[in-house]
Design brief:
three-stranded antiparallel beta sheet
């Protein structure tokens, strides 16, 4: 078979396995990606004349747990209106009874692809701070992501930084969630007790233990610390930044930052050359930090004093 024929067969298989959408509204274009919970397609919204992204569950039946996860993800996204979160435009049922939702189509690179293009600490922290601020917004709204990792962050072609895949998010407190047909051992968000949620290398120790019930904003803080450490590979961070990462990665949630807002605030202080919560300074460290912050000013004064001394020496001669 030729390469052209192979491509044609692949497209036919893709189309055959794709969702059957309401013909008066959406035209399916191509498969963008597929994960454990659902598949994302590029589609065209005929009514509003625009390209969109459409997500459908992988569930074999409408009553599957994956179906309910997708409903929850759409519900979470709909309540989190923030520049760092992809907005939901529409939702509905397919002809086979499965659920789908429609969101803004974002063109860009995942952080896995984008991170190697970032040069130096300042560029890395510029992107990371926007991730942390988005997660901080979610925490303030009572939502814990639970699966922060490089492939779940996208940098768009206009420089926007987006946190993706809220399908395993946990809603804290008494916030309303869609009812789920789950066994008595399941949690309020439909997660069975003892289930490990997250990705190895980025999930918090409590998630590694399968203790999803105790996942809190501090669990996301651990993932953010692991993410920042991953982004800084090849860069030697300063002591205060290492202390910030170390505080995020503490085994006990109570020893970490309580939420992403506290982490973002400490990181902002670090970038401004101010003392950070994660690292109590000694007097010499405080002096060194001050010297670093005002280095240009100090060098100008030194240059001036050297010139004055040189002028005085030549004048005596």
């Amino acid at each position: 078979m030729t390469r052209l024929q192979d491509d044609a067969v692949s497209r036919l298989r893709e189309a055959a396995g794709g969702p059957e959408l309401p013909p008066d509204r959406y035209e399916l274009r191509s498969l963008v990606g597929r994960g454990g919970m659902g598949a994302v397609y590029s589609a065209f919204d005929r009514r509003l004349d625009r390209e969109v992204a459409l997500k459908v569950s992988n569930g074999a039946t409408p009553a599957s747990g994956l179906e309910e996860r997708l409903r929850r993800e759409a519900s979470v996204l709909a309540r989190l209106e923030h520049p760092g979160i992809v907005p939901v435009h529409d939702a509905g049922e397919l002809r086979d009874g499965r659920w789908f939702y429609v969101m803004k189509r974002v063109h860009g690179l995942t952080l896995t692809e984008h991170a190697p293009t970032l040069s130096g600490e300042a560029a890395i922290l510029g992107v990371f701070e926007r991730i942390a601020q988005t997660v901080a917004f979610a925490h303030d709204a009572g939502v814990v992501h639970r699966d922060l990792k490089p492939s779940n962050v996208m940098v768009g072609r206009f420089g926007e930084v987006l946190v993706l895949d809220w399908g395993v998010a946990k809603i804290l407190g008494t916030a309303p969630v869609p009812s789920l047909p789950a066994p008595a051992t399941a949690l309020a968000d439909g997660t069975a007790a003892g289930t490990r949620i997250g990705t190895a290398g980025f999930m918090a120790p409590e998630q590694e233990r399968g203790d999803a019930m105790t996942a809190t904003p501090a669990s996301d803080v651990y993932s953010l610390g692991a993410l920042l450490s991953w982004m800084l590979k090849g860069v030697t961070p300063r002591r205060r930044l290492r202390a910030i990462i170390a505080k995020c990665l503490q085994p006990s949630p109570s020893d970490r930052y309580p939420d992403a807002a506290a982490l973002a605030a400490d990181l902002s202080r670090y970038r401004a050359g101010l003392p950070v919560e994660a690292h109590p300074e000694s007097a010499p460290e405080r002096a060194w930090r001050w010297a670093e912050k005002y280095r240009t000013f100090i060098l100008l004064i030194l240059a001036y004093l050297i010139m004055r001394a040189a002028f005085a020496w030549y004048s005596r001669g």
